[in-house]
């Protein structure tokens, strides 16, 4: 418990210290026509997430050095991208290296090649999706807490990762939430935060799937996954560049065009994901989840999302007339 208290204090000091550094070097996010915020805000407050993982590495026996190295490499490049936009080729290359190191360490390369290919597609897609979804106050913080809380609960009996690591990450997200999950955020996670947290969550979910042999646990990321996939499909239909910033996620329509408070929208997304987690874990625990139920579950969730998106866009068109 004493180590947790010390870690909590360290995270607060790191974040407050970072605010001074970011302010001095002008590491800020200026609102533009595609932003969901209206005020200049410090970018990169999510630096506390990789810092939490590194502190765990130092405090708990220097475990998983290669994964922590991959995380810090990813965080460093993402931070540089926050401070000064880097080439997409550099970012993609580093993402590939970091994910490859992760797969090597958790022995995923022992699986058949088609599982490895699928894992690359899903994990790299997840990291980018998590980054894309980091667009309004509170959403990364709340979603991170839901995911980490779920992993902490499952890990008590399954032991697929270090429980201390999960708890330290929860502390770091709680501290970040204090400065982000508010009407006028003091800081945004930035790429350094969203990419790093996404990488850590990918580590946990892949480890859980390997440990249990239950691919259905991917439903723990269903809300972000569904919103991202259908938003990409919509943008492709509109012949838009899917790698450019935009405001066409469902949560962005609610926050920007309908002026719903960011915290309310973020809360809705995360409560829905929490409900999905409960149902999915219950079905898996009772051995009632199979491929047919899994696909049906995804189809139902996708249908609900598409109906909600259709109604919201229809109301928006009426509003703009």
Share in β-strands: under 5%
Helical percent range? over 70%
> Per the principal axes of the C-alpha atoms, what is the gross shape?
globular
Radius of gyration: 19 Å
Largest sheet descriptor: 3 strands, mixed
Kindly, what is the distance between the CA atoms of the first and last residues, rounded to a whole number of angstroms?
59 Å
Describe the strand arrangement of the main beta sheet, using strand numbers.
Answer: 1-2-3
User: For the residues shown, what is the average pLDDT?
Assistant: 93
Describe this structure in words.
The protein is mainly α and 321 residues long. It is 72% helix and 2% strand. It has 12 helices and 3 strands. The protein has helices at 2-24, 48-59, 65-83, 88-105, 113-133, 139-158, 163-180, 190-212, 222-237, 250-257, 262-285, 291-320, and strands at residues 28-29, 41-43, 187-188. A 3-stranded mixed β-sheet has the order 1-2-3. Helix 1 (2-24) crosses helix 7 (163-180) and helix 10 runs parallel beside helix 12. It is globular.
Tags for this entry?
mainly alpha
């Amino acid at each position: 418990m004493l180590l947790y208290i010390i870690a909590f204090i360290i995270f607060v000091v790191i974040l407050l210290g970072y605010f001074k550094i970011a302010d001095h070097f002008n590491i800020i996010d200026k609102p533009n026509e595609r932003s969901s915020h209206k005020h200049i805000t410090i970018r990169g407050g999510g630096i506390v997430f990789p810092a939490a993982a590194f502190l765990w590495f130092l405090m708990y026996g220097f475990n998983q050095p290669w994964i922590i190295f991959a995380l810090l490499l990813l965080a460093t490049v993402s931070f540089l991208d926050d401070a000064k936009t880097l080439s997409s080729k550099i970012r993609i290359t580093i993402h590939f290296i970091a994910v490859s190191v992760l797969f090597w360490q958790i022995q995923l390369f022992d699986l058949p090649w088609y599982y490895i290919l699928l894992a690359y597609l899903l994990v790299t897609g997840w990291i980018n999706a998590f980054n894309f979804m980091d667009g309004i106050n509170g959403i990364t913080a709340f979603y991170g807490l839901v995911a980490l809380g779920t992993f902490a609960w499952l890990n008590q009996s399954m032991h697929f990762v270090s429980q201390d690591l999960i708890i330290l990450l929860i502390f770091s997200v709680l501290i970040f939430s204090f400065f982000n999950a508010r009407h006028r955020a003091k800081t945004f996670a930035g790429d350094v935060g969203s990419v790093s947290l996404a990488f850590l969550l990918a580590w946990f979910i892949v480890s859980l799937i390997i440990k249990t042999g239950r691919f259905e646990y991917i439903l723990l990321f269903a809300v972000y996954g569904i919103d991202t996939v259908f938003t990409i499909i919509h943008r492709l239909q509109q012949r838009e560049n899917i790698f450019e910033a935009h405001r066409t996620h469902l949560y962005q329509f609610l926050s920007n065009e309908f002026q719903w408070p960011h915290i309310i929208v973020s809360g809705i997304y995360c409560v829905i994901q929490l409900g999905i987690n409960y149902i999915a874990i219950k079905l898996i625990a009772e051995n009632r989840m199979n491929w047919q139920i899994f696909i049906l579950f995804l189809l139902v969730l996708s249908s609900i999302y598409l109906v909600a998106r259709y109604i919201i866009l229809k109301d928006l068109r009426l509003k703009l007339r």
